[in-house]
Amino acid sequence: MKVRSLAAMLVLICFQVGCTGIGVVGIVAERQEYNEAVNYTSAQQTLINLVRVYNRENPTFLSVADITSNKSISASLNGGSSNLGALLPIGALTSMVSVNEQPVVKYSTTTGFELIRQISTPISINSIFQLSSSNAPMLPLLILTLNRFTPEFGDYFRAITMLNSLDTLGAITIQQVGLDVVSVRYNPSGMVSRPVAGNAEDALILCYRAESYATLARHLWSQLTAIFKQGNSKEILLITSPTKSRETYILPRSAQGALSVSGNDHDIAFLPSEEIDRVINENRHQGSCLQDFYFLGRDELSAPDAWQIYYKSILSTASASMIQYDFRRVASQRALILVQTSSAPLSNAFVSYERRGVWYSIRDDDVISKRNFSLLSTITIIQALPAAPPTPTVTSIQLRN
After folding, report:
1. From the centroid of its chain, how far is CA 131?
2. Rounded distance, CA 66 to CA 68, Å?
3. What is the pTM of this model?
4. Distance between CA atoms of 221 and 307, rounded to whole angstroms?
5. Which of 114, 237, 358, 361 is the most exposed place for a label (fewest CB within 10 A)?
């Protein structure tokens, strides 16, 4: 009888210990919780820094350097019996198991030279186009990472649109050819000349509604080479380092520069709920063509009118100055990320943050803003270089003979 009671007690203790999350069970139960917590707070930090830069304040970065979870377990067993010597003795057996977890989270602040390097060092042109090879949306990527892209600043959005359109058509190849040099080559043999309706990969190509996509590709490449004025009809070199023979006109942004895009009041737009509803509804008619950005529909130019001008300018054979004017006109209406401002928390927020009585949120159902916001987070992470190990101090003492 005593043996059976002891065996039952051990089974009970083992069961209770297993349910508390020790060993393998603990990893299954807790790893994703820590992962979700770090992921969400990282997104929150990006949003917080967006708000700070928008309010003309300095961004601050705090990294989770280490998480250590220490656990201790204690168990006790109490038992007693009465009516000893009787045919049916009476007894009681109680057990108690307790588990204490003491997580230790270490934070790392970025200060001094490391902070300057993270927020002020321009992202390399090679890193930018490596991100495009990772299926990052090219048009938002170039706007967030390039401060200047063309010899004439007025061609900035026009050239980015042309490059993005040629990439969508599959008519160019982009590769690194030097430390600070990226080559863009015209390659019509790889383009999609007959897009298929209903094919998700061809949806953006169909948005151009061109009679001949091969003719459209030649037209776009001709405009792009005219903008860069390099004298090569088959290749454009994007250069960020000074050279004797070429003007340096590719100026990448730093991490702070990418965050400061919010300062132009349209690419990252801070709007109340009713305004965001209006913007999304006015752009909804674009259907599958709506993938990279919105048009805000301000200053007597509605979103549908802005989209009409945008695609008309891509196909236009008008003078370069007229096309440049039309692109600059719609560029001030472009929005990559919509940040909702409200006095109460948003129930369907992808990420949110409250500051001084105002809630700032990215909607969970706003796919465009979510994707571009995640891209912005990736850009700031790329610039968060690991701190260099401290240089050991060497003390030299000269001894007399």
Report:
1. 11
2. 7
3. 0.79
4. 21
5. 358
DSSP for 142-165? HHHHEEE-SSSGGGHHHHHHHHHH
Decide: 239 and 246 in contact? Cβ < 8 Å: yes
So what's the pLDDT on residue 394?
45
Phi-psi group of 297: left, alpha or beta (phi > 0 → left; psi -120 to 50 → alpha; rest → beta): left
Cα distances from 68 to residues 23, 42, 71, 101, 104, in angstroms, run 14, 19, 10, 10, 5
Render pLDDT for 101-132 as a digit per residue (tens, 0 to 9).
Answer: 666 666 666 666 666 666 778 888 888 888 87
Tokens 């091969």 map to which residue? Answer: 214
pLDDT digits (tens, 9 = 90+) for 140-190: 999 999 988 888 888 999 999 999 999 988 899 988 888 788 899 999 887
Spans of all domains in the chain = 2-60+62-109, 114-382
Longest pairwise C-alpha distance within the chain:
112
Tokens of 267: 């690419």
Length of the chain: 401
Contact 218, 233 (CB under 8 A): no
User: Residue 274 contacts by C-beta under 8 Å, 6 or more apart in sequence?
Assistant: none
